[in-house]
Amino acid sequence: MSAIPSARNVVALLEHWSPKSMAMDGDPVGLMLGALEKKVKNVLVTLDVTEAVVAEAVEQDTDLIISHHPLLFMPLTEVDTSTPKGRVIQQCLQHDITVYAAHTNLDIAPGGVNDWLVDEMGIKDTKIVVPTKKDHLYKLVAFVPEEDTDQVRRALGDAGAGHIGDYSHCTFNSEGTGTFIPGDETDPHIGNRGELTYVAEKKIETVIPDSILAHVLDVLGRVHPYEEPAYDLYPLGLEGEFFGLGRIGTLASSTTLDAFASSLKEIFNVKGLRVVGDLGRNVQTIAVIGGDGSKYWQQALAAGADVLVTGDVKFHTAQDAEAAGLALVDPGHHIEGIMKQALADRLGKDAQASGYQMKITASAVDTEPFTFL
User: Fold this and answer.
1) How would you list the strands of the sheet with 98-101, edge to edge?
2) Average pLDDT by consecutive 10-residue portion of the chain (373 residues)?
3) Residue 179 CB contacts under 8 Å (≥ 6 apart), including other chains
4) Dihedrals phi, psi of 221, to nearest 5 degrees
5) How many domains does the chain have?
6) Same domain, yes or no, for 261 and 342?
7) Alpha helices in 239-314 (DSSP H)
8) Pick from 242, 262, 292: which residue ends a domain?
9) Residues facing 11 on adjacent strands
10) Is 369 among the domain residues?
11) Closest alpha carbon to 250 in 307, 206, 314, 208
């Protein structure tokens, strides 16, 4: 049965695999404007929130805008509606449009912006360029009536709990007896108010990385039959997966820097790009950092990259990288626009799997400010 979700429900689908905790320190991600409790029938995914994008959103009767670049990147001291930013805020509030941003968390997340970029380039066997965070693991111990065990266990696994190496839905289960006395204001699933109740229960033990901990506990609360789910949670002295910015991998075969750079013009439909290095040199190991990633050129070089693909490269950074032997290709910051359709497709699949009824659209507005002559 389909249901109309709230903005919070939609955001939860995204934060399941791209949680805010993955974002770089100080990066303003999450809710920008509006309310997460409002019902959502139409979602617009965009790279930037500009006046043209908001006009598009209004025309499509959009309830929720999900952007990559945060609308409120810098703190505001005033909202002047005679300015472009002020008009954007005014129009969103006037038309009851909630605005949410997934920025560096979407860059860092496995299956996010940087993975979409390397996939388009045909780069294989990728690793992280700049490690930023490491997951810490928790042990969840949930106490569940025997007849509900399969449902709860499956839901926890589907939410990402119990993932160990190449195995998923890993749990340990033991049997016991739970006891409780329902209070006067309760509506117990089992037993009667004021009476000591004995229930045959199973104890489900599983591991959870802290990046999805809140999501898994939310799922447990929704699928557990008790009003107050019984569970224990404690940290483990084990570390989980590394996360980070950028990806580095290899092309299927070596090619010249000239040929590789030219291929990016076609892949990302850009009319011009900047290249640093000998155009005739052979390259095969490619590092990619979406957005403004040239500050990490030394990490890319140390990781073995022949060339770094990133945007917003500065003059002296280019000189330093060239002197060190690292080629650079700058196709512009705007190639991150690949996230519009990719994220819309991912959210659409996740929404369908969750039984949510809504329309998710990739913005058709081109927010690239540069023109190549």
Assistant:
1) 30-33, 98-101, 64-67, 42-46, 359-362
2) 89 93 95 97 99 98 99 93 97 98 98 98 98 92 95 93 91 95 89 92 95 90 91 89 96 98 96 97 99 98 99 98 98 97 98 94 97 87
3) 196, 197, 198, 199
4) -60, -30
5) 3
6) no
7) 257-267, 297-302
8) 242
9) none
10) no
11) 307
Tokens of 77: 């001291």
Angle at which helix 7-17 crosses helix 339-353, to 10 degrees, equals 110
φ, ψ of residue 281 in degrees (nearest 5): -70, 150
Q: Residues, the chain, total?
A: 373
Chosen domain end from 242, 263, 293: 242
Question: What sign for the dihedral angle of Cα 273, 275, 279, 282?
Answer: negative
How remote is the C-alpha of 44 from its chain's centroid?
A: 16
Are residue 256 and residue 235 in the same domain, yes or no? Answer: no
Report residue 49 as tokens.
């929130």
Q: Check whether residue 164 and residue 33 sit in a common domain.
A: no
Residue 69 in marked binding region: yes
Q: What are phi and psi of 40, to 5 degrees?
A: -125, 120
Which domain range does residue 159 map to?
Answer: 134-242
How far, in Å, CA of 289 to CA of 24, rounded? 14
280 lies in the same domain as 296: yes
Evaluated on CA atoms 275, 267, 49, 4, the torsion sign reads negative
Task: State whether 188 and 279 are in the same domain.
Answer: no
Tell me which residue of 92, 85, 88 sits closest to 64, measured CA to CA.
92
92 with 142, same domain: the answer is no
Residue 248 burial (CB count, 10 A): 25
Q: In whole angstroms, give the CA distance from residue 22 to residue 44.
A: 23
198-242 pLDDT, tens digit each: 999 999 999 999 888 988 998 999 999 998 899 999 999 887 888
Q: Are 176 and 234 in the same domain?
A: yes
- With respect to residue 372, please indicate whether it lies within any of the assigned structural domains: no
The answer to whether 365 touches 52, Cβ cutoff 8 Å, is yes
Residues 48 and 191 in one domain: no
Q: Is 68 annotated as a binding residue?
A: yes
Rounded Cα distance, 228 and 199, in Å:
15
Please give the Cα distance from 108 to 247 (Å, whole number).
Answer: 9
CATH number, domain at 355?
Answer: 3.40.1390.30
Angle at the Cα of 140 from the Cα atoms of 134 and 144, rounded to 5 degrees:
155
Q: Is 16 annotated as a binding residue?
A: no
